[in-house]
Specification:
CATH superfamily: DHBP synthase
Strand order of the largest sheet: 1-8-2-3-7-4-6-5-9-10
Largest sheet: 10 strands, mixed
Distance between the termini: 41 Å
Number of strands: 10
CATH topology: DHBP synthase
């Protein structure tokens, strides 16, 4: 199903439709401030496993990333020191993924790696979905090395490619082609491990 949601002013009824699919363990494709991403309720292990299997992600070796609505509830899912919190506050919402140590409230699938990527994208659609859901949403980009650019940026073509796997594809306008900047905050000194769209303000 392709649902059009306006990025500046998301329609609450459409948001509610997406949230109810997520509550049922469904999978969605949604816009962020970088690439279109595929995700599910991050606390629904079965749905997380389904996405990992599809994308060839081994959760024991790869960092899983989750989207939070804002900074207020990040400490539920990740351990955040005061300097890291200040750094995140300067840069979020924005095109960054901060790698942090996990807390015990995340399901076991996240714990083998002991770290989790935290995103608060500058995108009203996905942040509103997360807010209404009350749980973070798993985030992994739909980008595939062999994809033509149109298939990762044009919602109608994304829908054409993914409709058999995703329950909902959200059309929030054309997507970007550059991933987020990944910042490792698991040691005392934050370190950029992938330079993407965001320029980190220290």
């Amino acid at each position: 199903m392709l649902i059009k949601i306006h990025p500046d002013n998301p329609n609450p009824r459409e948001i509610e439709k997406v949230v109810s699919v997520l509550r049922d363990g469904g999978i969605i494709i949604y816009p962020t401030d970088t690439l279109y991403a595929i995700g599910c309720d991050a606390l629904n292990v079965r749905a997380v496993e389904k996405i990992c299997a599809l994308k060839g992600i081994n959760p024991q070796k790869h960092n899983l990333s989750i989207i939070c609505h804002d900074l207020s509830n990040i400490s539920e899912y990740a351990k955040v020191s005061t300097p890291v919190f200040k750094l995140m506050k300067k840069n979020l919402p924005g095109p960054f993924t901060f790698i942090l140590p996990t807390t015990s409230s995340l399901p076991k699938i996240y714990k083998k790696k002991k770290t989790v990527g935290i995103r608060v994208p500058d995108n009203n659609i996905i942040r509103e979905i997360v807010k209404q859901l009350g749980n973070p949403v798993l985030s992994t980009s739909i980008k595939d090395e062999n994809d033509e650019i149109e298939y990762i940026t044009d919602p109608e073509l994304i829908h054409e490619k993914w409709e058999n796997f995703a329950d909902i594809v959200i059309d929030g306008g054309y997507g970007g082609i550059e991933p987020s900047t990944v910042v490792d905050c698991t040691t005392d000194e934050p370190k950029i491990i992938r330079q993407g769209k965001g320029i980190l303000i220290l």
